[in-house]
Amino acid sequence: MHIAVAGNIGSGKTTLTKLLAKHYKWEANYEDVESNPYLNNFYEDMQRWSFNLQIYFLNTRFRQIIDIRNSGNTVIQDRTIYEDAYIFAPNLHSMGLMTTRDFDNYISLFELINSFIKPPDLLIYLKAGVPTLVNQIQKRGREYENSIRIDYLKKLNELYEEWIENYRLGNKLIVNVDNNEFDENPEDLGIVIQKIDAEIHGLF
């Protein structure tokens, strides 16, 4: 089974992935942040590095999906391939940080890849307001995230809301992070787990 956790920067995807992997004894598949060769450059000069970064993510997430399907294990994945294609790349394009030529090339490649993959069995979306995102980003203190602008996060949030509302590829569960501190409160985590149990039992 393939479970995926989606959400904006700072919504708590990695934290929830770790907690759920531990609880259910699932294999965890994390976003490649520390060894990403483009991330620092991207936040320093988004226009120059946006296409390179998005192609890197597309490549690594496609490999992750293939590995998940071939493993035969139940795997929980931190961020999905769809978020890059429907949220991050379009946002960069609309902000003038990715050229139309590069964007069209990227989308063409994504559509080809998408024809070979299956969506996750369950998508968990972490819904968070911008103040929550900013607080979480500041709390974890990644140096390259210091330059993330509020308007950038706000636009991403708008695209996330539009995407999740129209998501019809499979089961989805929405967790409001503004009202749930699963990272610090075991009771809040328990509420999330109860909801996931109900979704998983519905898959069989």
Mean pLDDT equals 91
Name given to the CATH architecture = 3-Layer(aba) Sandwich
| Uncertain residue ranges | none
Strand order of the largest sheet: 2-3-1-4-5
Named CATH topology? Rossmann fold
Put simply, the count of helices is 8
Query: Biggest β-sheet, characterized?
Result: 5 strands, parallel
Order of helices and strands: EHEHHEHHEHHEH
Q: How much is the radius of gyration in Å? A: 16 Å
The CATH class turns out to be Alpha Beta
- Class by SSE composition: alpha/beta
Terminal Cα span: 11 Å
Overall strand count: 5
In words, what does this structure look like?
- The mean pLDDT is 91.
- This protein has helices at 13-24, 39-44, 46-71, 81-94, 100-114, 130-140, 150-165, 186-201; strands spanning 2-7, 27-29, 75-78, 122-127, 171-176.
- Strands 2-3-1-4-5 form a 5-stranded parallel sheet, sandwiched between helices.
- The chain is α/β, with parallel strands linked by helices and 204 residues long.
- The chain is globular, with a radius of gyration of 16 Å.
- The chain is built from 8 helices and 5 strands.
- It starts with a strand and ends with a helix.
- The chain has a single domain, classed as P-loop containing nucleotide triphosphate hydrolases (Rossmann fold, 3-Layer(aba) Sandwich), CATH 3.40.50.
